[in-house]
UniProtKB/TrEMBL annotation, chain A:
Organism domain of life: Bacteria
GO biological process, alphabetically ordered: phosphate ion transmembrane transport
Annotated ABC transporter domain residues: 5-248
Pfam families with a match to the protein in the record: ABC_tran (PF00005)
Protein name stated in the entry: Phosphate transport system ATP-binding protein
PANTHER family from the UniProt entry: ABC TRANSPORTER I FAMILY MEMBER 17
Record lineage: Bacteria, Bacillati, Actinomycetota, Actinomycetes, Pseudonocardiales
Record keyword Translocase present: yes
Gene Ontology terms, MF aspect: ATP binding; ATP hydrolysis activity; phosphate transmembrane transporter activity
Keyword field: ATP-binding, Nucleotide-binding, Translocase, Transport
InterPro entries (UniProt xref): AAA+_ATPase, ABC_transporter-like_ATP-bd, ABC_transporter-like_CS, P-loop_NTPase, PstB-like
Cellular component terms (Gene Ontology): membrane
Nucleotide-binding as UniProt keyword: yes
TrEMBL record, chain B:
GO CC annotation: plasma membrane
Alphabetical list of PANTHER family matching this protein: PHOSPHATE TRANSPORT SYSTEM PERMEASE PROTEIN PST, PHOSPHATE TRANSPORT SYSTEM PERMEASE PROTEIN PSTC
Annotated ranges, domain ABC transmembrane type-1: 73-300
Membrane topology type: Multi-pass membrane protein
Transmembrane segments: 21-45, 65-98, 110-134, 165-184, 237-257, 277-300
A GO molecular function held by the record: phosphate transmembrane transporter activity
Natural source organism: Haloechinothrix alba
GO BP: phosphate ion transport
Family under the similarity heading: Belongs to the binding-protein-dependent transport system permease family. CysTW subfamily.
Protein name: Phosphate transport system permease protein
Described function: Part of the binding-protein-dependent transport system for phosphate; probably responsible for the translocation of the substrate across the membrane.
From TrEMBL, chain C:
Domain annotation ABC transmembrane type-1: ranges: 137-345
GO molecular function: phosphate transmembrane transporter activity
Subcellular localization, as worded in the UniProt entry: Cell membrane
Family designation: Belongs to the binding-protein-dependent transport system permease family. CysTW subfamily.
NCBIfam families xrefs: 3a0107s02c
Protein's name according to its UniProt entry: Phosphate transport system permease protein PstA
Species annotation: Haloechinothrix alba
Pfam families: BPD_transp_1 (PF00528)
Role: Part of the binding-protein-dependent transport system for phosphate; probably responsible for the translocation of the substrate across the membrane.
Annotated transmembrane regions: 28-47, 53-73, 85-107, 133-163, 170-201, 207-224, 256-277, 327-348
Signal sequence residues: none
GO CC aspect terms: plasma membrane
Membrane topology: Multi-pass membrane protein
Length: 259, 314, 358
């Protein structure tokens, strides 16, 4: 199910402003890829271009190629909605739908797309997704309470359950722990490890320890200068990046000399 | 899992169609607003045309549309302008009261009371003006005529029923009061707290603070709100229809029994009984009313919007 | 520079010569002045001269008292401030006077006919006493209902367009004209509906639908504005969450954005209904009046509460009292409906106030 992603010469624009320049990388299936770098270096922008969320900003656009299992998602006859059905996303702040219960939140991807499904199948899917998100035991008694009524860490795991319920091949996570306390962060990191065998996971993080803990591969983004576009400086196995990076800038960043 | 193919394979063309249909519908609804406004002008013009082109002697009154509408337009403007002169200062002071003088806990409730004034249907203001306010003004009007009779507004002779322009003006003032108050209150709410605190830190009393920091900030909102109120007063129908005893003619005498009618009141009085060219004439006068209120409202919104752009940084 | 504050009270009086601290009046002083003023004003009122004169006298006396004493004790700046406080407070009380008077009048005169017959009979064949407004109630409900059916979809879609789809110039233009549209006089809306139907069906036409169209012209801008305001409050994160689940935009709007904003929109719609349900003028020129029940909004005149109150009042029979009673009772019924709708609107917005983003 997990798919591999190939990015080639990707330039990302906000109107005329070039935000990210010339990124090429390969993301392996059934692995966790972390993207690190200082604020404003374009790592979130890059992540959002992987499922065509970037273009929701007025006048935003990309040039270059992003291929999932060889199919270019920016191809002329590709529907961005279809792309997103294959690539799930988890956001910085937990954003369960406030009008829906926990159950409905997990089922949202199915119901909002009007996919017909038997009640028992849906019950199954919700349970499976919540179990995958390590949340089932905590919420199984209050599935029909509002999704906003649980703790921040639980809400974030609810959002992950919601994302995996539609059975994506790839899971994008945009700083999923930055709004959470250490214990909830630990729970999410454990969850990422559990999900790894089934998905291709790309995670943007500010936290280098987190990148070191959860990822197999790490990419380092940086800006040449203020106002310049962000670039992918270096990408390698996480062990290599954190022990013997090739680039001076990478070393400076991970040793805390800037950023 | 069984669902992975369903959305992409089957649903895709349908989804795209749904998007297009829905976007089309909402865009259509947006454009409909513009079409309705254009339509109001166009349909009124079409239905007014026979009166505009008819020989003057066939138009009710026998002297053409322009001379039919003119006294009505005068009465409309007279009542609306005087109503505004009464309501605007009162509305500003009420907005000040609710925002700056009323106890915090009560402010919202008191504001709601003022909003209730706007909720009362105009026919009820008419009935009230006719039964309560009109008789109550007879005495004071007599005093005005006796003591200030040299002013043309109060020349008299005093109407015995009290169904005068003065009462119409007072009722209109009450009716537009909440509209002006609401807009001005909204503007006062946006006064930067820092300006107020700066004024207070200089040792200003409450009133000095209001004059230094609040009133200048709210000036264009006050102007815009007054024009909105003016627009409403110009078009108000039933209250004037019921309260005012009309005799045609053009006079500024506010307290006599001989009053000019207003366009809106004239339409309400005549339309149900009219046929043929009389209907076209009334619609022509309605077109004039539409043009005047449209211009006033556009000017009002322009003034109010300019202010909100100006204060956009807050 | 020294500034008198509220903490500096009588105890500071001894310091006045040593330090340049101004004296302030004790907090009970204005109340004492008010008591005196009310006593004098009340006497005048009770003596039967005039309630209005009594009220005016009370205010004038109070202002004079407070300002004079304050000027002597606290200096001119503080005196002016106190004068303004009094004026501002009186302006508010003055504005409440008509509201109270209107409500009192309508209630005291309207209760005469609040009986069963009033709600269950029409005016068919009624001369003199008796009769009711059943036909007007059904008419008002049908016409307002139709107007709501027209206005809510159009107004909500327009609000959706402005927030979710529109970009640039056109959006600004439409927003501007929606605001201008709120200022169209109701009688002009009525003439518009008349002219529209007269062009299609010939002059002299009257039907319930025409009234509904006229009321829609008044209602739509209100619905648009409240929809617009409420949709803007929906956090963008929810839209992104839906997009990320591969939900197409139109479903995202229908199933996520609108449900989240629904309470606010419902409040706006309720207030819009309250605004038009008491409209008389547009119905006068489009649906007219009739004495019996007409349940077909596509054919012929219909009675409505405000219009029947108007005709009962301007064309009373002989003797006039039964007619006038019916008019006032219709007015009371109308005001109860309007106030109830306002109350419902506040309750909805209070009960379902949108919880903040996270």
């Amino acid at each position: 199910m997990a798919k591999h992603i190939q990015v080639k010469d990707l330039d990302i624009y906000y109107d005329e402003f070039l935000a990210v320049q010339g990124v090429s990388m390969t993301i392996e299936p059934r692995s966790v890829t972390a993207l690190i770098g200082p604020s404003g270096c374009g790592k979130s922008t890059f992540l959002r271009s992987l499922n065509r969320m970037h273009e929701l900003v007025p006048k935003a656009r990309v040039e270059g190629q992003v291929a999932i299992n060889g199919r270019d998602i920016y191809g002329s006859n590709v529907d961005p909605v279809d792309v997103r059905s294959e690539i799930g996303m988890v956001f910085q702040r937990p954003n369960p739908f406030p009008t829906m219960s926990i159950y409905e939140n997990v089922a949202a991807g199915i119901r909002l797309n009007n996919v017909r499904m038997k009640r028992s199948e849906l019950d199954d899917l919700v349970e499976r997704s919540l179990r995958s998100a390590n949340l089932w035991n905590e919420v199984k008694d209050r599935l029909h309470r509002p999704g906003g009524g649980i703790s921040g860490g639980q809400q974030q795991r609810l959002c992950i359950a919601r994302a995996i319920a539609v059975d994506p091949a790839v899971l994008l996570m945009d700083e999923p722990c930055s709004a959470l306390d250490p214990i909830s962060t630990q729970a999410i990191e454990d969850l990422i490890n559990d999900l790894k065998p089934d998905y291709t996971i790309v995670i943007v993080t500010h936290n280098m320890q987190q990148a070191a803990r959860v990822s197999d591969t790490t990419g380092f983004f940086n800006l040449a200068d203020v106002g310049q576009p962000g670039q992918l400086i270096e990408m390698d196995t996480t062990a290599k990046i954190f022990s013997a990076p090739r680039e001076q800038a990478t070393e400076d960043y991970i040793t805390g000399r800037f950023g | 899992m069984p669902l992975s193919e369903t959305p992409s394979a089957v649903a895709r063309p349908r989804l795209r169609a749904g998007d297009r249909v829905f976007a089309g519908l909402s865009t259509g609804a947006g454009l409909l607003i513009l079409f309705v406004l254009a339509g109001v002008a166009a349909f009124l013009l079409v239905e007014a045309w026979p009166a505009l082109t008819a020989p003057p002697e066939e138009v009710p009154g026998g002297r053409g549309v322009a001379l039919y509408v003119w006294p009505l337009l005068f009465g409309t403007a007279l009542s609306a302008v005087f109503a505004l002169l009464i309501a605007a200062p009162l509305a500003v002071t009420i907005a000040l009261f609710v925002t700056y003088y009323a106890p915090r806990a009560l402010a919202q409730g008191l504001g709601y009371l003022i909003d209730l004034l706007a909720a009362v249907p105009s026919i009820i203001y008419g009935l009230w003006g006719f039964t309560v306010l009109a008789p109550a003004t007879v005495g004071p009007s007599g005093w005005l005529a006796d003591n200030l009779g040299f002013i043309p507004l109060f020349a008299g002779p005093v109407s015995a029923t009290g169904r005068t322009m003065l009462v119409a003006i007072l009722v209109l003032a009450v009716m537009i009061l909440p509209i002006i108050t609401a807009v001005v209150r909204e503007a006062f709410r946006q006064v930067p707290r820092l300006h107020e605190e700066a004024a207070r830190a200089l040792g200003a009393t409450q009133w000095e603070m209001l004059r230094m920091a609040v009133l200048p900030f709210g000036r264009s909102a006050i102007i815009g709100a007054s024009m909105l109120g003016l627009g409403r007063a110009l078009g108000e129908t039933m209250a004037v229809t019921i309260v005012l005893s009309v005799s045609g003619g053009v006079t500024v005498n506010l307290i006599s029994s001989g009053n000019p009618s207003t366009i809106a009141a004239d339409i309400a009085l005549q339309f149900p009984e009219s046929t043929g060219l009389a209907v076209n004439t009334l619609i022509a006068s309605g077109l004039v009313l539409f043009a005047v209120t449209f211009a006033v409202n556009m000017a009002a919104r322009t003034v109010i919007n300019r202010r909100s752009e100006f204060s956009g940084a807050n | 520079m020294s500034v008198p504050t509220r903490t500096e009270r009588e105890s500071d009086l001894t310091l006045t010569e040593a330090a340049p601290v101004r004296r302030t009046l004790p907090p009970w002083a204005p109340y004492a002045a008010l008591a005196v003023a009310i006593a004098v004003g009340g006497t005048v009122t009770l003596a039967g001269v005039s309630a209005g004169l009594g009220a005016v006298l009370t205010v004038v006396l109070y202002v004079a008292c407070v300002v004079t004493v304050s000027r002597l004790v606290e200096g001119p700046r503080k005196a002016k401030d106190r004068a303004v406080t009094t004026v501002v407070t009186s302006a508010f009380l003055l504005a409440l006077a008509p509201l109270i008077s209107v409500l009192a009048t309508v209630i005291s005169r309207g209760t005469a006919r609040m009986d069963v017959e009033f709600f269950t009979f029409s005016m068919r064949g009624v001369v003199g006493e008796g009769g009711g407004v059943y036909h007007a109630i059904t008419g008002t409900l049908m016409i307002t209902g139709l107007a709501t059916l027209i206005s809510v979809p159009v107004g909500m879609l327009c609000g959706v367009y402005l927030v979710e789809y529109a970009k640039g110039r056109l959006a600004t233009v439409i927003t501007f004209f929606v605001d201008v549209m709120t200022g169209i006089p109701s009688i002009v809306a009525g003439l518009f509906a008349y002219a529209l139907f007269a062009l299609i069906l010939g002059p002299g036409v009257r039907m319930g639908l025409m009234g509904a169209v006229a009321l829609s012209v008044l209602m739509i801008p209100v619905v648009v504005r409240s929809t617009e305001e409420m949709l803007k409050l929906v956090p963008n994160e929810l839209r992104e969450a839906a997009y990320a689940l591969a939900v197409p935009k139109w479903r995202m709007i229908l199933k996520v954005v609108i449900p989240t904003a629904l309470a606010g929109i419902a409040t706006g719609v309720t207030l819009a209904i309250a605004r038009v349900i008491g409209e008389t003028a547009p119905l006068l020129v489009t649906v007219g009046i009739t004495q019996s029940v007409n349940l077909n909004p596509f054919d012929g005149r219909m009675a409505t509460l405000p219009v029947s109150a108007y005709y009962q009042y301007v064309n009373p029979g002989v003797p006039p009292d039964p007619s006038l009673d019916r008019a006032w009772s219709a007015a009371l019924l109308l005001i109860i409906i309007v106030m109830a709708l306002n109350l419902v609107a506040r309750l909805i917005s209070h009960r379902f106030a949108p919880k903040s983003g996270g």
